[in-house]
Amino acid sequence: MAAIRSRTLRAPRLKRTALAIEAQLLDTRLAFDSVAADYDGPRGNNVLIRRMRRALWKAVCDELPPGSRLLDLGCGTGIDAVAFARRGYRVTATDWSARMVERTRARAAHAAMSSGIDAQHVGIHQLDQLAGEFDGIYSNLGPMNCVPDLRAAAAECARLLRPGGKLVCSVIGRICPWEIGHYALRGRFGRARVRAARGATPVGMNRHTIWARYYLPREFYRSFAEHFSLCGYRALGLFMPPPYLVDYYRRHRRWCHRLGRLDERLGAALVLRGMGDHFLIVMSARSRA
Ligand SMILES: C[S@@+](CC[C@H](N)C(=O)[O-])C[C@H]1O[C@@H](n2cnc3c(N)ncnc32)[C@H](O)[C@@H]1O
Fold first, then answer.
1. Which atom of ligand 1 is nearest the CA belonging to 76?
2. Would the CB of 169 count as within 6 Å of ligand 1?
3. Residue pair 99/36 in contact by the 8 Å Cβ criterion
């Protein structure tokens, strides 16, 4: 009797949770749809974003030779997809925002790379809709932070990768000393603590809301551990300021170049590698049982 009662109480709660997650996914899609047209403006030219972007390019190129089949999760406007297609990779580029997918198709056409890029409107939470086998999967600059069920995404990534295939992600981290210092010094302690929140956190963008989850690298890897072995991870943007402080970078260019060198030298060091604006993590798909 008690079991029946608890089951009947649990069912509506599960339904409410599923509806809330669906609503959050829609909010996030609307937010990115709303910025897609201008997404590469100042952001695309942001030198601090370009540095982090190139770190993922290097990791993918170090792991996989040209000609490999790649899946891009959360491709945005297709900057990475075109860069990899130019280097001879075959790319399936996916995004949850239809407007971003349109931008990727347009970029591929403009670069005469349409034959090397297949852009599809598929969210990371919908990977069961994709078929085929990939040599590598990558996700650059935070799409994985918008996924409600990381374990389910991990299982789908494992299904889509050949055994030994690589998964390379740059993920927004939980401990960003620059951010904590920047906001705490201005007395904005709530903002300084945003990344400490557990679960989905609302982040404003263009008068819309993105629902993001923040991770430590080890926390992130836990959802993948069943299907992937960990090759390594490193901090991105630990000593360098985060991209939204690019004006600070411009005012203190020489000093920041030194900080950039510290990032390169120490970003993979013990303890430090768990911090930074983002972290870059590389995993290898285990053989299927
Ligand atoms: C910060 S942008 C990064 C875009 C691109 N990877 C880049 O490096 O420029 C985040 C992207 O993730 C996409 N995104 C958000 N939630 C997603 C989801 N659940 N599945 C797939 N893409 C998602 C957004 O539409 C957006 O294009």
1. 27
2. no
3. yes
Count of domains in the chain? Answer: 1
The two tokens of residue 7 are 């089951």
Ligand 1 lined by 119 (C-beta under 6 Å)? no
Boundaries of domain holding 216: 2-285
How confident is the prediction along the chain (289 residues), in pLDDT tens digits per residue? 555 666 666 777 788 888 999 999 999 999 999 999 999 866 667 999 999 999 999 999 999 999 999 999 999 999 999 999 999 999 999 999 999 999 999 999 999 999 999 999 999 999 999 999 999 999 999 999 999 999 999 999 999 999 999 999 999 999 999 999 999 999 999 999 999 999 999 999 999 999 999 999 999 999 999 999 999 999 999 999 999 999 999 999 999 999 999 999 999 999 999 999 999 999 999 987 6
Residue of 92, 96, 124, 236 best suited for mutating to test ligand 1, as the one with most atoms within 8 Å of CB: 96
Q: How far apart are CA 5 and CA 10, in angstroms?
A: 9
Taking the whole predicted model, whether its pTM rises above 0.90 is answered as yes
Rounded CA-CA distance 161/136 in Å is 7
Tokens linked to 125: 């939470």
User: What SS3 class is residue 121?
Assistant: strand
Amino acid at 133: E
Report how far residue 207's alpha carbon sits from residue 201's, in angstroms, rounded to the nearest whole number. Answer: 15
Give phi and psi for 128, each to the nearest 5. Answer: -60, -15
Could you tell me the CATH number of the domain that includes residue 147?
A: 3.40.50.150
Binding site membership of 78 for ligand 1 (Cβ less than 6 Å): no
Residue nearest to atom 25 of ligand 1 (CA): 97
Helices 2-35 and 98-110: crossing angle in degrees, nearest 10, is 40
